[in-house]
Amino acid sequence: MSISEKIKTNLAYGKELVESGLQGAKEGRRTVQESDTQQAIVSDAARESWQAATLGAVAGALFGVLTDDRKPVRGVIAGSLFGAVLGFGGSFVWKTRPLTSAMAHGAGKRIGRARDKHWLTGHPVNYG
């Protein structure tokens, strides 16, 4: 087998792994979103994360005032923006962890199946 053929087969295998991972993540997301208890997990998480964003903006503004001696207004603006983004993002990630966990689990299962299939094509099992 030449090097170009090996590269082509490895690229095809990599593409297959990525596609199976994406498909597994979609299945996991669909499973969580179709359950009765998790109907609107993303919209609820976004709505509830604004409190953390506000708290982060206040903390960031305070930190910006304390750290920027020359231009405190610049420190307040930068600190509050950074704090708001950090607060919102952290809260959103925390509140959507059942969804991301299901997506990661589904992707892992599908990638495992694709890896097993790939291994079995190169190492066939002969039971007879």
Written description of the protein model:
- With 128 residues, the protein is mainly alpha-helical.
- It has one domain (3-122).
- The protein is built from 5 helices and no strands.
- The model has no long low-confidence stretch (mean pLDDT 89).
What are the defining features of this structure?
single chain, 128 residues, mainly alpha, 0% strand, elongated
Please outline what is shown here.
The protein is mainly alpha-helical and 128 residues long. Helix 2 runs antiparallel to helix 4 (72-95) and helix 3 runs antiparallel to helix 4. It has helices at 3-34, 41-48, 50-67, 72-95, 97-122.
Strand content: under 5%
Distance between the termini: 29 Å
Number of spatially distinct domains: 1
Spans of at least 5 consecutive residues with low confidence: none
Structural class: mainly alpha
Give the biggest beta sheet: none
User: Would you list the SSEs in sequence order as H and E?
Assistant: HHHHH
- Gross geometry: elongated
- Helices, by number, come to 5
List the helices and strands and how they pair.
Blueprint: H1 3-34, H2 41-48, H3 50-67, H4 72-95, H5 97-122
